[in-house]
Specification:
Blueprint: H1 2-7, E1 11-15, H2 19-27, E2 33-37, H3 48-58, H4 63-87, E3 92-96, H5 102-105, H6 109-120, H7 124-132, H8 146-151, H9 153-172, E4 178-183, H10 189-210, E5 217-222, H11 225-229, H12 231-234, E6 240-243, H13 245-253, H14 261-269, H15 286-300, E7 305-308, H16 319-325, E8 329-332, H17 337-354
């Protein structure tokens, strides 16, 4: 690995959502976190309490109810962020704002709905009505990502406050957090300006509360083709791009990555497409959108930092493409970090030989 890093030019980060995975990635040589999904705190171990608060927010019927639920959720977001920022001390950590299809987190089944009704103090029928109201025909293209933060700005506000507070607390404790905040699913610069205005207000409040100035980077995920095409405009606001190649592939092919397996298998068997594009990066079209996004983004902001945080970031066969496209880093799961480091070094050596 020392030999690998001697030749490697492209950075390698990790996708991690907790301190344990973050430490594993550092042990494997990760230089930061390229994707921390805030909503993953609502899955798995110790998720019961924050999930309960999130469900209260989802089921809220008024803004006041939603704000009250979010105020109870904020400490959990802050502590989750603080734990991983502490492990990554001095290394960049990119938090993706919440991107939850709301129906996935709503209470499911009569028993869970009755529990929620009792906790909130409303009828079972009312809970069921609210849960049914969350149903979307195509939730992957519905109320999620930045859209959630624009329709309900209080959701964005509480996340900024939690992340900024965690940063200030760690600085006061002698740590060196390198906070990066990433807005998902954007389609234009206006969305980012809307969210950045909230960030500016909250930053001023938090700095005043803690008596502590801090810096952070504000960026976005490029995962919708339109965003790649207007990247020059988006880069007026975003300091960095992270290409979410999972959704970018989905939007480009028109394949639902959640239930496309039967289609893709037949398409590959019949040689209609060469490989499953969710496993093997499609250079021809998705790759072209990536190149366009980088080129147009840097035409506006020459020092724009660009990375990959989709599954393809850990695909060694795609490393050469990302390197030549001008990526600053790829981000992958902790256990794929050594492979990504090796692939990045091989890409640099190959380019040197070609020259």
């Amino acid at each position: 690995m020392k030999l690998v890093d001697k030749f490697r030019k492209m950075g390698v980060r990790t996708n991690a959502d907790n301190p344990i995975d973050a430490q594993k990635a550092i042990d494997f040589g990760a230089e930061g976190i390229g994707l921390f999904r805030i909503e993953h705190m609502f899955y798995g171990e110790n998720s019961e309490k924050p999930l309960e608060k999130l469900r209260n927010m989802i089921l809220a019927n008024t803004r006041d109810e939603r704000v009250a639920a979010l105020d109870e959720l904020e400490p959990y977001i802050r502590e989750s962020a603080k734990g991983t920022l502490k492990v990554m001390d001095g290394k960049p950590l990119t938090f993706r704002l919440m991107d939850p299809p709301l129906h996935e987190f709503a209470p499911q089944g009569e028993e869970k709905m009755k529990e929620a009704a009792k906790r909130i103090g409303i009828s079972y029928e009312d809970v069921k009505k609210r849960v049914d109201g969350l149903h979307e025909v195509n939730p992957m293209m519905g109320l999620r990502g930045v859209r959630l933060g624009i329709i309900y700005p209080e959701i964005t506000r509480v996340q900024f406050r939690a992340l900024f507070s965690a940063t200030c607390e760690l600085m006061k404790e002698g740590y060196h957090p390198m906070l990066e905040i990433m807005v998902p699913l954007t389609i234009n610069a206006a969305e980012l300006k809307h969210q950045k205005a909230i960030a500016n207000e909250v930053k001023e409040e938090v700095e005043k509360k803690y008596g502590q100035k801090f810096e952070y980077k504000f960026g976005t995920m490029i995962e919708i083709p339109r965003a790649a095409l207007v990247a020059n405009q988006i880069a007026e606001v975003a300091e960095f791009f992270s290409f979410g190649t999972n959704d970018l592939t989905q939007m480009t092919f028109g394949f639902s990555r959640d239930d496309v397996n039967a289609i893709v298998k037949t398409y590959v068997d019949e040689k209609i497409i060469p490989a499953d594009p969710f496993n093997s990066f499609d250079r021809e079209c998705v790759g072209e959108l990536v190149k366009i996004g980088i080129e147009r983004g840097r035409s506006t902001r020459t020092n724009l930092k660009c990375g990959v945080c989709g599954e393809h970031g850990g695909d060694p066969t795609a490393a050469e493409f990302f390197y030549k496209a001008g990526m600053n880093y790829v981000s992958c799961s902790p256990f794929r970090v050594p492979v990504a480091r090796l692939a990045a070094a091989q890409a640099a050596i190959k380019e040197a030989r070609e020259k």
